[in-house]
Amino acid sequence: MTETVLERRDGAVVTFTLNRPERLNATVPEMTAYLRDRLPRIAEDGTVGAVILTGAGRGFCAGGDVQGMANRGEIPLTERTAMLRRNAEISRILSEMPQVSICAVNGVAAGAGLSLALSCDLRIAGESARFTTAFVKMGLCTDLGGAYFLRRLVGMAKAKELFLLGEMLPAAEALRLGLVSRVVPDADLQAEAASLAKRLAEGPRVAHGYLKQVLHAAETDTLSEWLDLEAWAQACCVMTADHKEATRAFAEKRPPRFEGR
Predict the structure, then answer these.
(1) What pTM, to 2 d.p., does this model score?
(2) What is the DSSP string of the chain?
């Protein structure tokens, strides 16, 4: 049986490639189970500095497998709810893991595929990439945190429009809305993602984790709570070997050599 997710490590960068190209990498239980198992382990691995999520073939992820939906039997509400919540851990981990997560979007990112892309810290799109919430066209709501992440990126009004209409957005429009960080030629997409991931992985990885934590907290904490967290995180960073190396490198007029500790 073909592996539905390919995992590759290059130095401090781990790449996960969704691998059902004949179905535009539509999700199936084997795929989500693999990511649920591996991502928490990667998040706890201090030797990993960045994670790339991408898709094989001509699409990133077309969302749930509609053919599979048509063939599956009825599942009790409580069981289906629990299954969806377990799968949503994939998005939570991609968002909250201390490493920087990068989605390299090739072709379509629809429905759950869009949710996965939005859960990553950074998104790079090929010129032919397309984005759509898609759920409403299947009579569905949202899953894998899609509405949570989209509202924070584009605001409530635009998020409602994108979800209720389910229109397809080209890469250029996704860039204008802030859904992606940059758009590159299709042929350069994987190399661009790998270069960015390598650059981040070679940076102060401890600081990256704290930065993600304080940025996420800014969405919900009061100002006083957030300032407490910011002060604690900065104090922790000051005590790292990476900070000490950076100050030495500055004095010696050379690039710092970070070790992620």
Answers:
(1) 0.93
(2) ---SEEEEEETTEEEEEE--GGGTT-B-HHHHHHHHHHHHHHHT-TT--EEEEEESTT-SB-SB-HHHHHH-----HHHHHHHHHHHHHHHHHHHHSSSEEEEEE-SEEETHHHHHHHHSSEEEEETT-EEE--GGGGT----TTHHHHHHHHH-HHHHHHHHHH---EEHHHHHHHTSSSEEE-GGGHHHHHHHHHHHHHTS-HHHHHHHHHHHHHTTTS-HHHHHHHHHHHHHHHHTSHHHHHHHHHHHTTS-------
Residue type, 74: E
pLDDT by position in tens, the chain (length 261): 479 999 999 999 999 999 999 999 999 999 999 999 999 999 999 999 999 999 999 999 999 887 766 556 688 999 999 999 999 999 999 999 999 999 999 999 999 999 999 999 999 999 999 999 999 998 999 999 999 999 999 999 999 999 999 999 999 999 999 999 999 999 999 999 999 999 999 999 999 999 999 999 998 999 999 999 999 999 999 999 999 999 999 999 999 999 988
- Pull the structure tokens for residue 68: 């599979």
DSSP lists the bridge partners of residue 103 as: 53, 123
Q: Domains in the chain, please, with CATH?
A: 5-201 (3.90.226.10), 205-251 (1.10.12)
Tokens in use for 154? Answer: 């584009």
Strand partners, 169: 131
Find, among 216, 1, 184, the residue nearest to 104 by Cα.
184
